Amino acid sequence: MDVLEATLRTRGEVTFTSREVGRLADTEPYILNTALYYALGLASGRYVDTSYEPTYVEDTAEVTDVYVSPAAPVSGSAPNYVTTTYNATSDEYAEVNYSAQDDPNAKQNLPSYGRRRSLAHSTPLRFFVISRGPSADKLDDRLPQYVRLGKKRGKARLDIQRRSATRKSGQFRLNHPIGAYDYPTPPEGNVVTKSMKPTPLVLQGDYTGKYVSIDREDDDRVRFPADLTFLATKR
Amino acid sequence: MIDQNTYPELEPGTVSADEMTLRPRSNFVNILVLRELESHAIFTTNGEDADIATVALKSEDGPMDYAPGLMFMRKQTGSDRRFGKALQRDLDLFDEDEDECTMQVNEMCQDCVECILYGSAASSDEGSDVSITSRVMYDTAYSLRDASVVIDEKFQNAPGGDYAKSAEATIREPDFFEPGTMFPSVITLRDVTPAEVAFVLGITAKNKRYGAATSRLGRVNNRILGVYVGSEEGPANLELTRETIARHRADEETGYETTIDVVMAEALDPSRTADHVSSAFEDAIDAQGLDLQAVSEETVDDIVEIATGDDFADVLNEQRDHSRAFLDQAE
After folding, report:
1. InterPro entries this protein is in (chain A) (predicted)?
2. Is A225 a residue whose pLDDT tops 90?
3. How far apart are CA B211 and CA B233, in angstroms?
4. For residue A109, is it within any domain?
5. Which residues in chain B have Cβ-Cβ distances shorter than 8 Å to A47?
6. In CA terms, which of A92, A170, B18, B204 is 20 to 30 Å from B88?
C-alpha cells in the first residue's frame, strides 16, 4: 500500500493560540489534524458561525476512510519563530480614552493589544495521509498545493511524496504524533504526550497489534497503529 | 452591473450572487499587486523596529540569504478594511437610522458588504452572536531588496515648546522604510461574487496609506498587475519575491552581475519589476500546474473603473441584499 507523506512549509507567519500567557499567545510547532482536515479541503467548515461549538465529527463523517496525522517538526530542523505586537486601534478621528478604572469595556474580553509568537516563514512540518479507501493517487490529486492555516490564515506550501508502506503486526513504537482520541487503545509504555487544544497528542508510545510501517528510504521508518480514525473515540 | 453574465471570464473563480453558500468551495480569485512605497513608511510591531526575516536565495555562487523587510499581512488587511468602511460611508450605503459600521471590535454592523466579506466577530448586540469568517486572504509581503538598503533609522525628537524642560524621554529612533521599496503581493479571494471582487479591486486601487502615522507617511502605490481565477491558490509572496529577484538578476538590460547586486541595489525600476512579478507568477502557474487562468486586462481595467466610480453604490447595494441572504442561511 502507498501512503502520502506531506511536507508543509510555511510561507509567512502561521498563528495558532496553543497557549495564552497573559497578553501573549504562543504557537506550538505542531498542527493538529483538527486543522489539517479543513486546510486540505477534506472537510468543509462554515463561513458563518452561530453555534460556537466545534463540529469536527460531523464535518468529517464522510472521510473516515482517510486518516490525516497531525503535523510535527521535520527532524533536524528547528521551527522558525517571529514574535509581534498587535494593536487594534479603531478608525475614528476622535475617541474617548478611558482610564483603566473607568473603562466601560473593562469587563469584556476584547483585547485590543497583545503579542503573538507565530511560526515564521520556512518552518518545515511533516504529516502523513493514510488511506483505507481511495487510492493514494486519487488522494494526491485532491490535495491542494497551497493551504491556509491558523488564526490569521497564514499561507503554506505542501510538497507531497508517495511512500510505500506495509501492514504488519506485533509490537511496535509509534514515532509520529497522533491525536489522543484517534486510536481507542491506550499505549502500553514509553508514552510521551503533549497537551494541546482541542485534542491532546500522543507523540510516542509502545503498542501491540496491527500497524502500518512506512518506508522512508534512508530515514527512519514511521510506524502508526493500523486503522486509525480521526476522533475515533468521539464518534 | 458586475456579475458573471457581464464578465464571464470571472466565472471559474467566483460564485454568482444568489449562489453564495456557507460551506467553502474551491473558487479562488488571485489579485496580483505590486506595492511600491512613494514616501517613507513605518511598519513595526513594537513601535521602533521594522520586522526583518532571513530568506534563502539561489545565487551564482550557491545558496545565499538576504534579509528583507516585512509588511505583515495584517498591515495590509487593517488599512484595506478601514478604507472599505470609509468607501461604504462615502457611497451612502448606510440608511440614516442605521448606526454606521466601524472598526470598533465589538461594534461592527455585521450587515454590510465589508463585514460579510472580510469577516467579523460577535457584535455587542444582544442575540446577534454571529461570527463570520473572512473570505479575503492576505499574505505577508517581503521587500525585494535587503533591509540594510530599504530601512533607515531616523532620529525623532519631540521636545515641546517650553524653555524649562522636565526629564521626559522624547527621543526615539524608529525604522523607516525608504521610498521606492517594493513588495510583490497577492490578495486571495475565496467563494466571492464578482461584485465583491470589484469591491476589493476598488479598495486596492484607491487605498494609498499603510503602516503607522499615515497622516504624514506610508503612501503606497498599489499596482494591480493582474487577476487570476480558478480552483486553487497561486504561489505565495515569498516565492514570488525570490523569483522576481532571480529575474532581475537575469535581466540583461539592467545588467546586474550578481544576486547580491540586486538585493543591495540603490533602486529597482518599478515597471521592470512589475513585468518580472507578472511573469514570475504566470510561469509558476505553468510550472506547478496550478488551475488558474488570467483575466484579460480590459476586463480588469473595466471593473476597476466601475469600482472606483460614483455608480458603485448601486453595485454594492445589490450585493448587500445577496450578502444578507447569505448570512440568513446560518439562522
Report:
1. CRISPR-assoc_prot_Csc1
2. yes
3. 26
4. no
5. 22-24, 132-133, 135, 191, 326
6. B18
C-beta atoms of B237 and A46 within 8 A: no
- A102 inside domain: no
Residue A80 lies in a domain: yes
Task: Examine the pLDDT at A43 and tell me if it is beyond 70.
Answer: yes
Provide φ and ψ at B85, rounded to 5°: -65, -45
Q: Which phi-psi region, left, alpha or beta, contains residue B107 (left: φ > 0; alpha: ψ -120 to 50)?
A: alpha
List the domain range (segments joined by +) for residue A182.
2-88+114-225
Contact status of B156 with chain A (Cβ, < 8 Å): no
Read off the CATH number of the domain in which A6 is found. Answer: 3.30.70
Which chain A residues are Cβ-neighbours of B331 within 8 angstroms?
50
Contact B233 A45 (CB under 8 A): no
How many domains are contained in chain A? 1
Does residue A50 carry a pLDDT above 80?
yes
Please, what sign has the CA dihedral across residues B317, B319, B322, B323?
negative
pLDDT tens for B268-326 read 999 999 999 999 999 999 999 999 999 999 999 999 999 999 899 999 999 999 999 99
Instruction: Tell me whether B56 touches chain A (CB under 8 Å).
Output: yes
Q: Reply yes or no on whether the pLDDT at B125 is more than 70.
A: no
A146 touches chain B (CB under 8 A): yes
With respect to residue A7, please indicate whether it lies within any of the assigned structural domains. yes
Instruction: Report the residue from A12, A45, A48 with minimal CB separation from B238.
Output: A12
Q: Which residue has the higher pLDDT, A134 or B226?
A: B226
